[in-house]
Amino acid sequence: MLIGVLALQGAFREHKQMLEKCGCEVVEVRKNIHLEKLDGLIIPGGESTTIGKLLEDWDLFQPIKERGLNGMPIFGTCAGMIILAKNIVDSDQKRLGLMDVEVVRNAYGRQVDSFEADLEISVLGEKPFRGIFIRAPYIKSVEPQVGIMAEHDGKIVMVRQGNFLSCAFHPELTDDDRVHRYFLQMVNDAKNYN
Length: 194
Ligand code: GLN
Prior knowledge:
single chain, alpha/beta, Rossmann fold, seven-stranded mixed β-sheet, 5 helices, 26% helix, globular, binds glutamine
């Protein structure tokens, strides 16, 4: 299985390490040519306005969008979740808009820039998943075709819509690989289906 990690800016190395630990072959995606043989792609956390701009500058915006629309699984974490969202409250920044959700950026305010919380994510089993939130967004609303996978404090923090997955926290900064393995299962299912 070949998984790409968008490596324009942000926390891509940690995703790469986690995927390698799960036994995947990993490509750092910086050019169109890196997309060719991918089975799935991760868009990491970082700064969503920068990542959106670099996607265009590096001619990756349209090709990634098309691959996603053609069924390639994509997983966005934190800034990656913002990039995948269709609507961003009070922002017209560049986004792929592949998921029918509305996100709020930097949603927790200055006093709580970063925090950790135990999350119940039923598809991962009974043991809670430790969510690390760093200047995190949350999802304000979703359309009916979007599945809510986790909430924290009454706010939606993880969703899936078909071949797209996103979360507001940073699973790559823990040593719990269950979220990555869940995504890899999605990739595997998509591969068997195509
Ligand atoms: N605050 C960042 C943004 O709005 C996201 C932060 C993160 O990815 N850790 O893009």
